[in-house]
Amino acid sequence: MTSGDDTYARMFRRHAHPFSAWSRLLTAPLLLVPLWTRRWWLYVPIGAWFAVNPVMTPPAHDVSSFATRAILGEESWIRDPRTEPVVLALTGIASMSLVGAMVAGYQRRKFGAVAGTGTFGALTLWQWKLWADRFARETRRTGPTEGPHHLR
Is the pTM of the predicted complex or chain greater than 0.85? Predict the structure, then answer.
């Protein structure tokens, strides 16, 4: 493992902390605020939040949380997203939903902004479920104290 891989794994162990994972998901609607209000400077603190969020918490110490298992499954999936095309498709559709919500926010269309944001959240939770399932499969295959998901 290279030092870059080690840094990457440490970042994911921190992002796998339930507070980091849930707070990042639940604050995604903040991306619409500068568009709706036309206060572009708000992207500075919002961008800082999204940059700091994955590393602000201590590393996850166990995998009892659904969010932890999902984020650790995501880490594995990112290394080769072609292995699970359903998740890849969900990622694309969720991203389009968020972009649609942002466009609706700019146009100040409440229904479109809420519907797009809700769709993004629902699809993200579906992705989390699939990633958590992937984590469970990999943990069964490699054992709880081996493999890329052993929490040290």
Answer: yes
